[in-house]
Amino acid sequence: MKVKNSLFLVLAICAVLGAGCGKQGAPEAGAQKPVIKLSYSVFFPPTHVQAKLAAEWAAEIKRRTGGQVQVTVFSGGSLTKADQCYQGVVDGVSDIGMSAFAYTRGRFPLLEGLDLPAGYPDGVAATRIANDLAAKYMPAEVQDVKLLYVHAHGPGILASKRPVATLADMKGLKVRATGFCSKVVECLGGSPVSMPQGETYESLQKGVVDATFCPAETLKGWKQGEVINCLTDCKCIGYTTAFFVAMNKEKWEQLPADVQKTIAAVNAEWVVKHGQAWNDADAEGLAFIQGLKRDVIPLSVSEQAVWVAKVAPLLQEYAARAAQKNLPGEAFLKDLQAAVAAARATQGK
């Protein structure tokens, strides 16, 4: 009788736990996978094409994982500001972040070489080259996150209120330039003036600055084409700004292997989309100023050589500075220059 009572008690406990005594821990047939919710901080405003691409990336991840991964995008720096974004990913303030390496100068001593005035021909090439070099070198400076991919805007060129066709025209020119670009202006004989992009329109309008170094997309996107008269095609020293898309390392490692594989596949597709978006935006910027009858001034072949020689010390300084930190700056620079030269040759530029 005691044996029967004991057996009844064991069966009752199993029933209450819902484990089924011989099936403890086994998932139910057809059970849905747990939803993974991630936050994505983007500094671009929601109307910017790069913020829209981030939102489309999130939607694609959700679609391909059957709704298992749901990413909420916080654009316009609403979750973390541009210069706080990377650290915000490291600290878990956001699970994913998009911003520029240049916004935290000194933190990325090797990858800052991506922004050098190497002569990028366009945004597609800049994005491909930046992504390839970041993946090849993957330095210690980004090992505190999972670097998903990199993209980069089209070549920075000179938009001015008066014609600039030679280096002599640059002397004393007040040029809006920030970060590393300020050194480019100094090398060319101009006077750099640092200010946020949002203040550039009014500063050009009021004569606070005479010119701005910018990718062509800003001429329409920020309406700066309205307050300049000329555009100097100096892509021979075209610089870029490289943007990271990074994920909190712990969050990445917690993702199921199939989800990681899906994200990697989407990333590869989105690198191409970002590069083309930068190209399209530059084309719209050029069309905008052409509609305003602004002059586009090409540099002669001999003048291009002069400008390239003037900024060459900046490239060597980068390599030397990296070497002092035991980083492969010289190798990185050679790879960068070779990739840019190949891209320019392909396009006949």
Write structural notes for this entry.
Helix content is 46%, strand content 16%. It is of the alpha/beta class and 349 residues long. Helix 2 (49-64) links the parallel strand 1 (36-42) and strand 2.
How large is the radius of gyration? 26 Å
How much helical structure, as a percent, in the residues?
A: 40-55%
| DSSP, total strands | 11
Mean pLDDT across the residues is 91
Sheet/helix structural class: alpha/beta
What is the count of DSSP helices, taking H or I runs of 4+ residues? 11
Unreliable stretches covering 5 or more consecutive residues: 1-30
User: Main sheet?
Assistant: 6 strands, mixed
Strand content: 15-25%
Strands in their spatial order, largest beta sheet:
7-6-8-5-9-11
Which word captures the global form? Answer: globular
Helices and strands, in order, run as HEHEHEHEEEHEHEHEEHHEHH
- For the terminal residues, how far apart are their CA atoms? 95 Å
Describe this structure in a few short sentences.
With 349 residues, the chain is an alpha/beta fold. Strands 7-6-8-5-9-11 form a 6-stranded mixed β-sheet. The chain has a 5-stranded mixed β-sheet with strand order 2-1-3-10-4, sandwiched between helices.
Brief descriptors of the model:
single chain; 349 residues; alpha/beta; 6-stranded mixed beta sheet; 5-stranded mixed beta sheet; 11 strands
Q: Topology of this structure?
A:
Layout: H1 2-17, E1 36-42, H2 49-64, E2 69-74, H3 85-91, E3 96-100, H4 123-137, E4 145-152, E5 157-160, E6 174-176, H5 181-187, E7 191-193, H6 197-206, E8 211-214, H7 217-221, E9 230-233, E10 242-248, H8 249-254, H9 257-291, E11 295-298, H10 301-324, H11 329-347
Parallel strand pairs: 1-2, 1-3, 6-7, 6-8, 9-11
Antiparallel strand pairs: 3-10, 4-10, 5-8, 5-9
